[in-house]
Amino acid sequence: MLDLQGYGPRLLEGAGVTIQLALLSLALALVLGLITASAKMSRNRLIHAIATVYTTLIRGVPDLVLMMLLFFGGQMGVNVISDMLYDSFEIDYYISFNAFAAGVLTIGFIFGAYMGETFRGAFMAVDNGQIEAGRAYGMNNWLVFRRIRFPQMMRHALPGLSNNWMVLLKTTALVSVIGLSDMVRVAAEASRATHEPFVFLLPVAAAYLMIASVSEWIFARLQKRYNIGFGGH
Amino acid sequence: MKKLLSVSLLGLAVAATTAQARDYDHVRIGVDVPYEPMEYRTPEGELTGFDIDLGNELCERVGVTCEWIEQEWDGIVPGLLARNYDAIMSSMTINDERRQTVLFSEPYFTPPSAWFAPATSELEETSQESLEGKTIGVQRGTLQDNYVTDMYGSVADINRYSTADDMVLDMEAERLDIVFLDYPVGKSTLIDSENRAYQVIGEKITEPKEYFGDGFGIAFRQRDEALAERFNEALEEVQQDGTYDEIHQKYFGEEE
Amino acid sequence: MLDISAWFNDLLAGNLIFTAQTLGYYWEGLVTTTQLVFLSLVIGLVMAVPLAVLRGSKHPWIRLPIYFYTYVFRGTPLLIQLYIIYYGVVFVDGIQDSFLWPVLREAFYPALIAFTLNTAAYTTEIFHGAIKATARGEIEAARAYGMSQNLMMRRIILPSAFRRALPAYGNEVIFMLHASAIASVVTLMDLTGAARFVYARYYAPFEAFLFVAAIYLCLTFAILYFFRFLEKKLLAHLRPLS
Questions:
Q1: Chain B residues with CB inside 8 Å of C203's CB?
Q2: How far apart are CA C86 and CA C93, in angstroms?
Q3: B123 & B199 share domain
Q4: In a 3-state reduction of DSSP, which class is residue B253?
């Protein structure tokens, strides 16, 4: 049997951190992605430009560098403001970034850019005729979005979303470098202390594979659901 | 799990905006773990070490509750400025460079730095010539890093590590020829542990002061003078009534 | 020459962070990152081509091991792969006395091995997908010409698959560049490593990381335009006639 030398509970806790981090960043990325996609399809030049700069910059810089910038630098930026508030108005408020929040924000922010591209492509793939048909039925914009554009967009977006999610999941490992005790960090710490890297790192690798396989299964089911009425895929 | 989730959600509500009173009754202390015997975790995860025991004692005397917050060394000063915690007690040497950014307590411990190499190493001294082409290990952002970078950067390879444990592992793997560490830490992790054959090369080093400053201090934000003063008083108290010696004895034994 | 260095010193005068020393570190980092990424991509590519062909083999005992390899390397974080290889090689009995040790001792080579295995896995799947997507007509035409399986692979399937794989492979190259940022966790002084050093020494996160982000951005754009250029040349036949 696997002897985790007392690190078992901490590894489990670390796995919890990894999963929460991944799910919360996914939620943030989806919201940002939808906003970005709308912004990119907007006719307003400024909004369009902002979205373009966002997706370009994010996709041009390594995740780890962005994470460090936000974790180490973001806090300092916030402090300058809070120090100013204190010095000029005696208001002593502060906002603290813990590693977890920095992780969720950075990963969400990064993948928001990728999700944005996925959503945009998917929205554009929805047949215009369908939207016109919806309008002809007297549906308002919101109803058209809810009943026609969104479900159809999801059908096109799912493969991309599934892909982004898999990459996001693996990206969570990077938070271990900025000091968050996710399962990778606990495993690395344990390997150093016990000098048995395989005992700790291999199970963690297996855990990632397991999460990936479960997600694949879930996405396959979703794909089926959104494909109802289209026969096959 | 549910509790964990809600706790971190709370943390995520990034704006965990808390109004912090000027008079602390709760002090969060940043610490870089592991750095045996100054601060480290047992496998069960319990935090212990010289700094931890002394710090808890000081907190009690100051009359505040203390919370230890782990932070890797290369982000430890920014973390303080960032108010991730209110003080640093993590074997931090007082020096002029750091004085520009933080406020130090009186020194509470003065260890020298030293070079450590495998017992089989043929190195006899640590001049620039003898370390030419060697691989030197240091912890990133420490005064040892600064010293080695400036003195040996042009002749030797320098490997920088986030934690002392990484460094020890690479030394055992024979990836490093020599490491430069706080003496007590090197003694505890390299010399005293079983099965590990290491030696100190050359003298213990405390000069020049420009790098090696004058001992470990507790770091505070510049504006928290009152808090630093309270800790200084407590420090004097434990040094006079023998509590300090007890803790010292527990981690360092008789020597020095 | 003297003028230039005087001008350079003037430029840096009064700047505590971007000194000749730290810029030297950034330069060293740029060189390390480029070497690491370039070498792993080239070796990975060389490995991926045969693997991609064999990945489509009829024999399960050829196909399945390759699938397993790509599944594992694509399903786990590169950081773990790097840790396993960097710390793992040390525990191979007698490795320190073998002729391999001078190579494995340096952090560069374990990192190179990890990166290569990783990119080879992704590239294998990219090519495999492209090969599978070969138009039936092309294959039938080749058969009609009486081409053997090998000849067909060499002359028809692979060249057309390479072209189809180009956009996806371009993304993989950028992905590798970004992924290489983790090399600094095993002491390599790559671009990110240089930034971490500057940050830790001067407590200057913005200067340290924004500067390095800008360098990565430039590299990313360079790769992007290189692949656009390639696509234009190689995929010219797919463009609508004007």
A1: 77-78, 81, 101
A2: 15
A3: yes
A4: coil
Nearest residue on chain C to B177, alpha-carbon basis = C105
Q: Which chains touch A (3 or more CB pairs under 8 A)?
A: B, C
CATH number at C81 reads 1.10.3720.10
Claim to verify: residue B198 and residue B229 sit in the same structural domain: no
Binding-face residues of C in 157-196 toward B, CB within 8 A? 185, 187, 189, 193, 196
Is there a contact between B48 and A122 (Cβ–Cβ < 8 Å)?
no
Q: Is A94 on the interface with C (CB under 8 A)?
A: no
Q: Percent of chain A, pLDDT > 70? A: 89
0.90 surpassed by complex ipTM? no
Domain count of the fold of chain B: 2
- Say which of A64, A69, A170 has its CB closest to residue C205: A69
Strand order in the sheet with B26-31: B65-70, B26-31, B87-88, B219-221, B102-104
CA–CA dist C130, C160 (Å, integer):
8
| pLDDT lower than 70: segments of chain C | 1-16, 238-242
Choose among B71, B79, B83: nearest Cβ to A94.
B83
Mean pLDDT over each residue of chain B, to the nearest integer: 82
**Domains of chain A, residue spans:** 8-226
- Residue of A55, A65, A171 to mutate, testing the C interface (most C Cβ within 10 Å of its Cβ): A65
C20 is written with which tokens?
């000749």
Interface test with A, best of C178, C210, C219 (most A CBs within 10 A): C178
What does pLDDT average to over chain A? 85
State pLDDT tens for residues A116-129: 989 998 888 888 88
Answer whether residue B253 shows pLDDT above 90. Answer: no
> Which residues share a beta bridge with B114?
B181
Cβ-based contacts of B224 with chain A (< 8 Å): none
Digit-coded pLDDT (tens) for A64-83: 999 888 877 776 777 677 67
Higher pLDDT, B207 or C229: C229
Domain match, B178 and B63 both: no
What would be the CATH architecture of the domain defined by A8-226? Orthogonal Bundle (1.10)
- According to the model, what pLDDT value does residue C1 have? 53
C200 touching A, CB under 8 A? no
Domain encompassing residue B202: 113-212
H or E element that contains B194: none
Confidence tier at A16 by pLDDT (50, 70, 90): very high
**Chains in contact with chain B (at least 3 beta-carbon pairs closer than 8 A):** A, C
Do B61 and B193 meet the contact criterion of CB atoms below 8 Å apart? no
- Phi first, then psi: what are they for B113, rounded to 5°? -100, 160
